[in-house]
Design brief:
Chain lengths: 757, 128, 485
């Protein structure tokens, strides 16, 4: 329930209303004025990211213009409604800011001709929708709904990106107009199937098509003006807008037609069934929105010019009747404090103007004559009869219409007529002017276009032309011959009213289908969301287990395995170095080294281990001495001595620190796995060393150093000259390591001393 | 000549890795020291062990004759000093750890990544 | 030009000054800030120089090549140096605030300059052994900064960091020994020629070992354990520098090796690298999904993001390299920004664990917007930097027909979104679990906000107007491959 503060301060109200309304109204009026004078299509370009061929190429044709009018027109009314609905709410300004950003993003999306730029705005609308759905974020359910909406549309967005890039690659352009023009050239490309598949997923998530539809009813957690604007009139139609945009390019594809019609009609039927077992007016409206969206997807998929015109008409009709119904739901919420249809009857007495708006919107929704809904239904029927649909699809569409009539009856009759028998805490009251004006205006517009469809002919004609380029917008005539159509509509109306009268009975019947609902797509989403932490905990506790030896084991084993793979991949016909004669001192030193190393396997006492390890160091010193490296030998000798002496001293000291009652069991004397890993690591390195030492050696560097050391650097000890002159930068680094090592260790040393005291 | 040295350094590397994999902190550090030692020997042999005479230009000559590879020696010298500095730091660190933890078992050292009893979530740590 | 070595000499000299002025904290922090600014100016001058003159290079001691150690500041090096300088400045600024600063022991300043010196030198050196030396400089300074904390937690982190990274540098040293033995050269440019003469059967495992050594430094799967084990113990200023620089050292070296020196790399190696990249992405993001401590979540995301960069390297094309560099720049800025946001959250709400905090959207809307923008950029929501990075990578994957790679990259994007939403939901939207909580007011946060807003400004600018950076990274990739843009 998003019932905000009701008692607003009248002083502050009007000022902020004007303030909030300024930009949308300005936009709307500019647009109307501009569209009046500007011949369509109209386009211009701004460079943005030329190196990626992404530019702001704006392209406004009939379809864009239609959307622009809906976005800005309904936007104005939503802002006006919002100032009333959210008056006194302490975060109302946030909503208006987000709504304004949303409006701009929507405008950006419908005017851009570049697929990637369209995607940019598309994602922005998703994010803004997320923030708006989670507006009342103190409640966990609302947070979850927001997350759901974001994850579903966000993932769909990722698929769309994939699809757009693929389309761009196939077509060699990101421009939608060029893509349409070039379509015949690549229509048989096998990648097209995948590209369109991903575009479909993107569009279906955004426009709440099965199996991604479930986020939309949950998104009703948003404040009502937001629901009316984003989740009924504009954003959810963006997916269909994209499909309609691409329709001229792909409408001949069998895949295109079949997927859209199937998904569309299936969604519509599922949503119609779901509508019946809701009791919350807003959720009922949400499900019926999904049903309409399904119908729209189906119409986009249907071939023919009539279908294009029908799509354009339904876009408009839906915006004109669904938004006011949402406003009505908001008014009821505001005035009566509930949206449950069981608690709402006889509201006509308290809220006459809301009832009027609901009535006019509802007759349009039901498709009664003299409304724009009727006009739309008429064109749709015409399109269906042209398109040679399966009989099944027609039946399904009929069923969807029946339910929408019933929903209209709920909104107009059930809630406002009859006796108010429900005890309430406070008497319901009519909403203020700012909340009455928008639904009344929209419902009246629907009526106006219903009476004089010719007023809207040119715009719908142009919009349809964008989807079906063969259509001549000047020949569009929406006027209808009432009698035969009324006959056709009569069945729908009668069954719709029947459904309305038996709503509760059907509700109970359909409740048995709950079992299916429990296994539906929403449960898949929940299952994924529940599985994710399970997978995460497993993988993280395996790989980041907190135990240093295991980390090291993973590292070493992987290195050994990778290197072994690479060695094996290189063919195994290895060239070993020759066995030269071995001077005795070198052999001796090598043996000392090896013996020291081998002995460490057997030693358990730390001190002895240290001494045995020292053997390796001293052995290396000996080796250096015998192989012409006296400087190295000296350094190694000094370093090793310091190391052994210091460590020995430390070890003796440390015995006093250690707590011998350690909780973990002591280490095994011999660790076969570790030995295996160590041995394979060692062998790989031995093989590598042997392989490289069999290669010829390029002495260019050493020759140069030998030749120039005395002449240019005035030193006879070439090693020293290399260190201090040729490679002085290494020595700078080495000294830095020593210096920083001291800085790093000094605080620790200080702590050790303090702790001992 | 290289065969003997390479086999020797292979054992050193194996022993170093084996010790480093131990959960005993000091074995681990000594293992790393040995590993460093083995790899320094690798670096040393990379310059080839063709000559046993030190790379010093004898008095009277201006150019170095056929001697051991001076560049490899210079590199090893740098590497020895660096690994010595690293090891000294690690020893001091080890003393501090044992001083605080009263144990030199690295498996028991779970202060930065504490064990969690919860089947799904990590434990909540107390901030200082 | 002497300017080429400035990125390492300036911070080294500053570190020296800071050490000398150890006794006087005020003097020390002044030296420190002055040094950071000097580095920033140097980096900016270098960017201008490099943009017009291709590269700025210097051979130490003026020896002819390849006998002296060469320092080559190219576009990649200068980009990362600039980021290092920027992060250092912000980090020192942050140190003056109350949002989780480092302990004021007098060792922080010299060590962090040392870390920057080591990293910058590693970005620009053109000599393999010299690279090893600077790796060690960066490592010892990092260890010093980690151990600064003084608690057992910090020592544990330091030990894990030390052991795994030391093994990494030792592997690098071994790879250098083998490379030198096989080719007789150490200078990158000469190695490039010399490698062609060596039997590829021998060169393959050597290149592999070198690659692994850098993968350890870059914290790739399965070598990443040191990163999530240690990052969360760091105070905010160090953490920002760590997250911006350390994994980039490995990435930078990998790009240089695989696309420059050891080019063309073998198909097998690149396939293995791609496998490692994909696993890093997945395992990293799963780790983030598991954790509830903001810093740990972000640390795991670093692994996943490293996966993206590795994937772009594995594509082994010029566009792939350009994507890597773009992504590296993006990740340095955004991840550091997020870690700093985390510190501010900690400072306001009193804890890093999401289960203990909440209510920040209502209390601190400005901070919420900052966090949201950084988080969305990390996820790759357009038109922020992350989007362009991911777009470049995915496009190149699709061009090369690697549909699986593109698919995994996108799915991981979805999971990244999930865990960013988790932070947002828990820390910002959820009411604070302690009903009596209200954010503390008397803390000094102006320097912190100044720092983070600077970062945000850069991120937004690069996101909304990516063209200059895209051109720059394209030229950088061309330079690495030996071409002249």
């Amino acid at each position: 329930m998003d019932n905000p503060e009701q008692n607003q301060t009248s002083k502050k109200g009007p000022d902020s209303t004007l303030f909030h309304l300024a930009i949308p109204t300005l936009l709307f009026s500019c647009l109307v004025w501009w569209l009046f004078y500007q011949p369509l299509p109209w386009s211009f370009q701004i460079a943005w990211v030329p190196s990626l061929n992404i530019g702001f190429s704006v392209f406004v044709d009939g379809l864009s213009a239609q959307f622009l009018l809906m976005i800005s027109g309904i936007g104005c009314l939503v802002f006006l409604y919002g100032t009333g609905y959210l008056a006194g709410h302490k975060k109302a300004n946030h909503v208006f800011l987000l709504l304004l950003l949303f409006m701009l993003a929507m405008i950006g999306a419908v005017v851009s001709d570049n697929l990637i730029v369209l995607f940019v705005f598309w994602e922005l609308t998703s994010v803004l929708s997320f923030l708006l759905v989670g507006f009342n974020h103190e409640e966990e359910n609302n947070r979850k709904s927001a997350q759901q909406a974001m994850l579903i549309t966000g993932s769909g967005g990722l698929c769309l990106l994939l699809g757009c890039i693929l389309l761009g690659q196939i077509a060699g352009t990101y421009s939608i107009q060029l893509l349409i023009a070039r379509a015949p050239l690549f229509i048989n490309d096998p990648r097209l199937f995948w590209a369109l598949g991903f575009v479909f997923i993107g569009a279906f998530t955004k426009s709440a098509q099965f199996p991604f539809h479930f986020w939309l009813p949950n998104a009703m957690a948003a404040p009502t003006p937001v629901s009316a604007y984003l989740h009924s009139a504009t954003m959810v139609k963006l997916g269909i807008y994209l499909l309609a945009r691409l329709d001229p390019a792909f409408s001949d594809l069998f895949f295109w037609e079949v997927s859209l019609i199937t998904v569309g009609i299936f969604t519509a039927v599922i949503a119609a069934i779901q509508t019946i077992y809701e009791r919350d007016l807003k959720r009922i409206l949400a499900w019926s929105t999904i049903a309409t969206l399904g119908t729209l997807v189906m119409l986009v998929g249907m071939p023919g010019e009539g279908a294009a015109l029908a799509t354009a008409a339904l876009f408009f009709a839906h915006a004109l009747y669904k938004a006011p119904l949402f406003f009505v739901a908001g008014n009821l919420d505001h005035g009566a404090g509930t949206r449950q249809i069981d608690c709402l009857t006889g509201m006509r007495r308290y809220m006459p103007w809301t009832a009027t708006a609901a009535f006019f919107a509802a007759i349009s929704m039901a498709g009664l004559p003299l409304t724009f809904g009727f006009v739309a239904k008429d064109i749709i029927n015409l399109a269906k009869s042209q398109a040679n649909l399966l009989q099944l699809v027609s039946y399904a569409a009929f069923f969807v219409n029946v339910v929408s009539v019933a929903v209209a009856a709920i909104a107009a009759i059930h809630i406002f007529w009859g006796q108010d028998t429900i005890p309430r805490k406070a008497q319901p009251h009519e909403a203020n002017l700012r909340m009455l004006f928008p639904p009344l205006v929209l419902a009246a517009t629907g009526l106006l276009f219903g009476l004089r469809p010719a007023l809207i002919d040119p715009l719908l004609g142009l919009a349809a032309q964008s989807m079906a380029p063969g259509l001549d917008p000047n020949k569009v005539d929406l006027s209808y011959d009432a009698i035969p159509v009324i006959e056709a509509t009569f069945g729908t109306l009668a069954l719709g009213l029947f459904t309305y009268l038996r709503w509760d009975w059907l509700h109970n019947k359909f409740n048995r289908l709950q079992a299916i609902q429990k296994r539906g797509p929403e449960s898949w989403y929940n299952a994924v969301l529940e599985t994710l932490p399970l997978v995460a905990v497993r993988s993280t506790r395996v790989f980041q287990n907190g135990m240093l030896p295991r980390y090291l084991l993973t590292l070493i084993a992987t290195v050994a395995a990778l290197l072994a793979t690479l060695l094996a991949a290189s063919g195994l016909n290895w060239q070993w170095p020759e066995m030269e004669s071995l001077p005795f001192p070198v052999l001796g030193a090598s043996m000392v080294i090896a013996a020291g190393a081998l002995a460490t396997f057997r030693v358990s006492d730390h001190l002895i281990l240290l001494l045995v390890g020292g053997m390796v160091g001293y052995g290396s010193a000996l080796l250096f001495l015998f192989t012409g490296a006296p400087d190295l030998a000296l350094t190694q000798f000094v370093v090793e001595t310091i190391f052994v002496v210091v460590v020995a001293a430390v070890l003796v000291k440390l015995r006093s620190f250690r707590n011998e009652t350690a909780k973990v069991p002591p280490e095994k004397r011999f660790r076969p796995l570790h030995f295996l890993v160590a041995a394979s690591f060692g062998s790989v390195f031995v093989i590598l060393c042997l392989l490289v030492s069999a290669l010829p050696f390029d002495p260019a560097l050493t020759d140069f150093y030998g030749a120039r050391s005395l002449l240019d650097a005035n030193g006879r000890n070439v090693v020293n000259i290399i260190l201090v002159d040729f490679r002085a930068l290494d020595t700078l680094g080495e000294i830095s390591v020593l210096g920083f090592g001291l800085l790093a260790a000094y605080p620790l040393l200080k702590q050790i001393r303090e702790k001992r005291r | 000549m290289s065969w003997a040295v390479i086999l020797a350094l292979g054992t050193v590397i194996t022993a170093g890795i084996y010790l480093a994999l131990s959960r005993d902190l000091f074995r681990c550090l000594i293992g790393l020291a040995l590993l460093g030692n083995g790899i320094n020997l690798m670096l040393f042999t990379s310059g080839r062990l063709n000559s046993l005479s030190p790379p010093i230009i004898p008095a009277g000559d201006t150019v170095l004759g056929a001697t051991a590879n001076p560049l490899a020696q210079a590199l090893v010298l740098t590497a020895i000093v660096i690994s010595f500095a690293m090891l000294c730091f690690s020893l001091i660190l080890a003393i501090r750890i044992v001083q605080e933890n009263r144990s030199d078992d690295t498996i028991a050292l779970r202060e930065a990544e504490p064990h969690s009893n919860d089947p799904l979530k990590p434990i909540i740590e107390d901030e200082p | 030009m002497i300017l080429a070595v400035a990125p390492l000499l300036v911070p080294l000299a500053t570190a020296l000054l800071c050490t000398v002025s150890y006794g006087s904290p005020r003097l020390q922090s002044r030296f420190s800030i002055a040094g950071a600014l000097a580095l920033l100016i140097t980096a900016i001058i270098l960017v201008i120089e490099v943009s017009s003159n291709h590269v700025v290079s210097l051979t130490a001691g003026n020896w002819p090549l390849p006998y002296g150690i060469e320092v080559v500041v190219d576009r990649l090096g200068v980009a990362l140096t600039l980021i290092a300088a920027l992060m250092l400045t912000i980090s020192l600024l942050w140190q003056n605030s109350d949002a989780d600063p480092a302990p004021t022991s007098g060792f922080f300043h010299p060590l962090i300059h040392g870390l920057v010196a080591g990293s910058c030198a590693a970005f620009i050196t053109a000599d393999l052994f010299n690279l090893y030396v600077w790796f060690e400089v960066a490592l010892i300074c990092a260890l010093g900064l980690l151990a600064q904390g003084g608690g057992l937690k910090h020592f544990d982190a330091t030990l894990k960091y030390f052991v795994l990274n030391l093994v990494g540098t030792l592997l690098l040293l071994a790879a250098i020994a083998l490379t030198y033995a096989a080719t007789g050269h150490l200078n990158f440019a000469n190695l490039r020629l010399a490698v062609q003469q060596v039997d590829p059967a021998v060169m393959l495992p050597i290149t592999g070992l070198l690659l692994i050594a850098f993968l350890v430094k870059a914290a790739a799967f399965p070598f990443f354990a040191w990163l999530p084990a240690s990052y969360h113990t760091l105070p905010a200023p160090s953490l920002a520098v760590f997250s911006a620089l350390l994994s980039k050292i490995g990435i930078c070296a990998l790009v240089r090796m695989l696309s420059g020196t050891f080019h063309p790399p073998s198909y097998l190696l690149m396939t293995l690298l791609a496998g490692i990249a994909l696993l890093s992405m997945v395992i990293g993001v799963l780790g983030a999904a598991y954790h509830w401590d903001i810093r740990r979540i972000l640390a795991f995301h670093s692994i996943s993001q490293v996966g993206y960069m590795l994937l772009a390297i594995a594509l082994s094309s010029r566009q792939g390299d350009a994507a890597t560099i773009f992504f590296a720049v993006h990740h340095s800025l955004v991840k550091a920004g997020l870690f700093l946001c985390g510190a501010l959250i900690f400072c306001m709400a009193g804890h890093y664990d999401l289960r203990r905090i909440g209510g920040l959207y209502a209390a601190r809307p400005f901070l919420s917007v900052i966090f949201l923008l950084f988080a969305l950029s990390l996820v790759g929501i357009p038109p922020l930097t992350g989007f362009w990075g991911k777009y470049l990578i995915i496009r190149e994957c699709l061009i090369q027909g690697q549909y699986l790679w593109a698919g995994v990259a996108l799915s991981v994007g979805g999971l990244t979104f999930y865990s960013m939403l988790k932070i947002w939901k828990e820390a910002f939207w959820k009411p604070h679990p302690d009903a009596t909580w209200s954010p503390t007011k008397e803390k000094k946060l102006a320097p912190a906000y100044a720092g983070i807003c600077t970062l945000l400004f850069v991120v937004l600018w690069l996101g909304l107007y990516p063209e200059p950076l895209l051109v720059f990274v394209n030229d950088a990739a061309m330079t690495i491959r030996g071409g002249i843009p």
